[in-house]
Design a protein that fits this description.
Layout: E1 2-4, H1 10-15, E2 19-21, H2 27-32, E3 35-36, H3 44-52
Parallel strand pairs: 1-2, 2-3
């Protein structure tokens, strides 16, 4: 799993087994991601980690 929010993260998101774009990422980044989570302001990182790794 790789999580990113900007153009410099696009290669990483494409290469990862599961590429997740933050909700505040540009549309181009969201389009290449496997999944889009909530924005930074909405605790998107916490949300996606709990979704895939419940604890």
């Amino acid at each position: 799993m790789a999580i990113g929010d900007n153009f410099n993260d696009m290669d990483m998101l494409t290469y990862a087994g599961l590429g997740v774009a933050m909700g505040n990422a540009p549309d181009e980044v969201k389009k290449i991601a496997d999944e889009v989570t909530l924005s930074n302001d909405q605790d998107g990182l916490k949300y996606i980690l709990q979704k895939h790794f419940p604890f």
